[in-house]
Amino acid sequence: MNTLLSQAFVKNSSFAPLALRVAAGVIFAAYGAQKLFGWFGGYGLEGTGQWMASIGLAPGYLMALMAGSAEFFGGLLLIVGLLTRPAAIALAFAMLVAIVTVHLPNGLFMANNGYAFGLSLMAISVSIAVSGAGRLSIDNIIHKVDVRSNNAGAAATR
User: Fold this and answer.
1) Low-confidence ranges of the chain (pLDDT < 50)
2) Fewer CB in 10 Å around end: N or C, the chain?
3) Cα 57–58–64 angle (5° rounding)?
4) pLDDT computed for residue 96 by the predictor
5) What is the spatial distance between Cα 60 and Cα 69, in angstroms, rounded to a whole number?
6) Shortest CA distance to 45 belongs to which of 27, 24, 59?
7) CB neighbours (10 Å) of residue 87?
8) Distance (Å, rounded) from C-alpha 74 to C-alpha 32?
9) What is the reported pLDDT for 14?
10) How far is it, in rounded angstroms, from Cα 40 to Cα 46?
11) pLDDT of residue 69
12) What is the rounded distance in angstroms from the CA atom of residue 124 to the CA atom of residue 28?
């Protein structure tokens, strides 16, 4: 496996990232489903796109598609632990954009539509991007298979 791709699957033998991955993944996937499909009381792509355009994120439909896809598919990837680091980086970036464009002027507290929740999700995403998926993940399985195939290949060339 090439070096860049193998870095996405670097093994972390801890169980600790599991709790963060699953909880954050469920939250992100649910918010993404609101944006993309209108599930859970969301407005779907059209409504979300109109709102995003109204706050200066144009073209609104494309921004809604990008944000919703990052959240929905990124959340699903976190839940199963596949391509965890790239997904977490995309989600951290999505939260940074949300904080700067929507929540920052409202202060910290959620009661005022502040940035506390977005900051928490961004911190979780950064933590997952740094730590990796952990032991119970598809990334870990891929890493083990890659190590075995590299070891077998190295033994065959001796």
Assistant:
1) none
2) C
3) 70
4) 98
5) 14
6) 59
7) 27
8) 9
9) 83
10) 15
11) 98
12) 11
